[in-house]
What does this fold into?
Amino acid sequence: MGRELDLLLRERVAGAAVLDGDFAADLAAPVARFTLDGGRRMRSRFLWWAMRACGGAAPETPAALRTAAALELIQTCALVHDDVMDGSPRRRGGPSFHARLATRYPGAVSTGTAAAPFASSAAVLAGDLALAWADDIVAGTDFGGDSVRNGVLENWRAMRTEMVAGQYLDLHGQATGARSAARAIRTACLKTALYSVARPLSLGAAVAGADPRTVLDLCAAGRYAGTAFQLRDDIEGVFGDPLLTGKPSGDDIRSGKLTYLVAVARSRAGSRGDRAALSVLEGAFGNADLTEDRLLRVREVLTDTGALEAVEKRIGRLLAAGERRLAAAALEPAPARRLRALLAAVAAPTSPAARPAPAVPWRPAAPEPPAGRPAPEAGTTSASSAAQEVPAADDGVTPDAVASAASAGPGPRGAPVPARPAPPAATARRPAEVPVTSASAATVHSAADAPATPPAASAADAPGTPPAASAADAPGTPPAAPGPVPVPPAAATGNPVTHPHSPARRVRPGDGPAARRPSGTTADRSSG
It folds into this structure.
């Protein structure tokens, strides 16, 4: 995938150089480098192994690699925009995109008294460029037939909208001072669970032409694991080592971002009448000048109230629920083991949490409130609807879902991608920087893919056998438009593509889904 991404980005940077050298050097080439040189490529791995687990092999590989490359560009867009919105100075262990631009143009200002700084404005354009490139790649990909293309485009359209909705809820929570644990879970599901795990799994299954029931099971498994991933990220944002997480510790607290961890701590402190703990949280939340000493006190409160332990337990329950849904899916055995390992590892801590000793006299912990159970599947056979299921919040909070339909027409057939021209000579004021293949480019096989034993389910969450299929899960033909998008009450206020290293595409008879492959095939053995 790294090689595919490099080839695709070289084309686009060369095209940008024809337009203007400054544009290519300041935006296009840095977007390419940012995409190539960082990140775990987690979404690409989910897409790849879902495709393989659903029976995809050599004929589906070119489409899977191109779609995975597009996912990496979507991630670049999301990170660049997120850092601008949060004012984050660092990303992936180095300066964030807008911080690099500010260093390159230290005296640059935007016209107008109310205009955003030049670096932030330019970074927004860089994110837009990454999004445009991602869409172009998907539009120009041959998926082997209209039914497969429509399934991929349905998931692609839904994923982009969900990502924006989740980011908006994140901003809205900061602006309004939202405190609801249910709201925090809802935001985590939209912003992270669907976009980072569930949709990549659905895209991989769609590329392979999987049946709707398999797509439902993969989507649900990804939703649970993705929510656990965001809850882990909330913990790492306060307790994690910045050298390992790639971002400053305590940024979520300083920016006033609603997280489930803080929401649970507030709820528990309030129920105990612990005014000292509430005072610490209120004084730190949204305080951009929060010192390390005061951040240490926040960590103590998160630990003393039992919030940290409660979130850790919830992560375990979510991972166990995801494991059960994955086990219920009809998948190829060897690739399924890869998926199981990835889902188990997605919420693993980067380092042991720095849990400080309480600075206040010890007191017994309050009784653990009854944990909310996962929300039941909605009555639909659409893969989009499955992705929208929101895991219930803990502490007895279960948001009711109010359906609001989202519709979109079928995506157009993509135009063929022309053969790669030789990079044209730059005609601009200074030569553009063209990304060079990084030796550290991630590959599909890595140590992170090694099989791992998933955490055991809690007694409350672990039935003896996988849950029986409900009528809502019955196979059927998914609609062309995304399914209903639940909103919690709180929200109310074709053509073949030529590639130098890709095998020829095979069009399936009747343009239907690929036939299931028995276990033990060459495709299975090669995935180990």
